[in-house]
Design brief:
Two copies of one chain form a homodimer. Chain A has a single domain (7-183), classed as Dihydrofolate Reductase, subunit A, CATH 3.40.430.10. With 185 residues, chain A is of the alpha/beta class. Chain A has helices spanning 45-50, 59-72, 103-111, 124-132; strands spanning 7-15, 19-21, 54-58, 81-84, 96-99, 117-120, 138-144, 146-147, 152-153, 162-171, 177-183. Helix content of chain A is 21%, strand content 31%. In chain A, strands 5-4-3-6-1-7-11-10 form an eight-stranded mixed β-sheet. A two-stranded antiparallel sheet of chain A has the order 2-9. Strand 10 of chain A pairs antiparallel with strand 8 (146-147) of chain B, so a sheet runs across the interface.
Chain lengths: 185, 185
Amino acid sequence: MATAEFRITIHMVSSVDGIIAKKDNSISWFETSHKYDKGVTGQDPVEFLKTIDCYVMGSRTYELAVELSKSYGWAYGHKPTIVLTSRNLPTAGPQIEFYSGELSKLVNERLKPNYKNVWVVGGSSLTKNFIQQKLADEIRLSMLPIILGEGLPFFDHIGLEQVLHLKDTTAYKNGMVELRYQIIK
Amino acid sequence: MATAEFRITIHMVSSVDGIIAKKDNSISWFETSHKYDKGVTGQDPVEFLKTIDCYVMGSRTYELAVELSKSYGWAYGHKPTIVLTSRNLPTAGPQIEFYSGELSKLVNERLKPNYKNVWVVGGSSLTKNFIQQKLADEIRLSMLPIILGEGLPFFDHIGLEQVLHLKDTTAYKNGMVELRYQIIK
């Protein structure tokens, strides 16, 4: 990806009703039991994750990731992970960096000079800020074939309208549908 | 469709953030400006709508449809349309029938003997009742390439978990993605 342009992608894995985390934080709903015969098998996740070179997340998403790491390990490997917070949170490892300043400054001074493929992985208010300030380039929505009915929504009435441009759709054998949208600026 | 089995489909046209109606009820967001080159052109809507032989909707969805009909005409043609309500609402035409009894009775005694392809077109609480009582067979989600940010959500924390089975995905030239799910009973 050395020649690729700098790009910030907002990513979510959600249910059909837009929920990204259950109230009890269990993640067994990621495993689907039905097969979608017309789907493709997933891209090699190791190869795919290699192309991401920095994660950005809000503080509650970070706390959830720390909580889940106790059972499943830290989900974001050794990649630099920047947590937006003004709180004093315990660190999950040397790759974690806490940031409390302006988002545009983070993007222009910290991310752009150092990375190519930055992923924002939640939550809802951070997503809103990235979209509102026209700082994100893409939304990638991985939708699992389930209705959860309650929990933490990704788009929680973010209160702004944003036109998107469909770039790609992929349906996987496990019934997950991945939708890629460009954010029109 | 004479040989098809009886089927109840829950249908929604929504934004990426799951909103089905804006606060001002405007519908210009249905028109997209960008082209998705890999998409297919839509099925002939007249031919497609012919296969639906009955609509079912909640009272607020009906009131919204009546409101919109003043500008755009009645969206459901001459097809029988059953409105679930205990209120005394003005009728929009001879094809409208009001119903206030049990949902299972409606399905088994009124819909099953008379129709094959019934579409439930909202809103959220009616959808919830159909799913909760295992009365619906499919969900068809037509997602437009826009974030609306606020408005009427289709899945409004419906409070129950429901496993789905992806049946088909279609991306259209206008950037709309249609997802068909079977409701696992």
